[in-house]
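Hey, resending since the last one bounced:
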Amino acid sequence: MDRRNALKNSGLLAGTAIAMPGLLSLLQSCKSESRLGWQPSFFTEDEATTISMLVDMILPRTDTPGALDVNVDVFIDKVIAQSYTKKDQQKMRDDIAAFNEGCKTNFGKVFHELTEDKRIAVLQAAEKSNAKFNPGIWGKSIGEQESIGFYRSLKATAIWAYITSEEIGKTVLSYDPIPGKFQACIPVGDVGNKWTF
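The structure tokens again:
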């Protein structure tokens, strides 16, 4: 999985972030959460461990901060606790249980107890078996969107949480809190990084 390509292809997620500013405040509130002192609002301890391991593998720390560095797992927990319906919350629990059950069936252990090479194999299989997002225009999917499944849905949420975090907005993406002069026609190469929101 190439994080840079994932970030380049996340325009759809960016549009969602603009439409849902209330959730952005949740992300900023996650910034102060301590990694060791984090008490999940929704997840059980095992579910939280699974989600943390998943987002860390999807967006690991490299020369830029990883998902755990900007508390993506904490953000996902708060979003589910504060904005999901009871039905959707139960579906999330069922999806995590089914995901871990698949890991146990194929490798003998739940996801977060697997060795790294087996976790990579699980994610590679999930990439192949989960439906992809349809191409879209202006945030609208072209054609009827097939259910994308637990893994792809979590991945999309993790990328969205990651690119809309304050730290990534300021240190990885281009950031200009007070825009300068308007330049209508400049070469695309002069733009540099993707711009933060």
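The longest strand covers residues 136-137.

Sorry for the duplicate.
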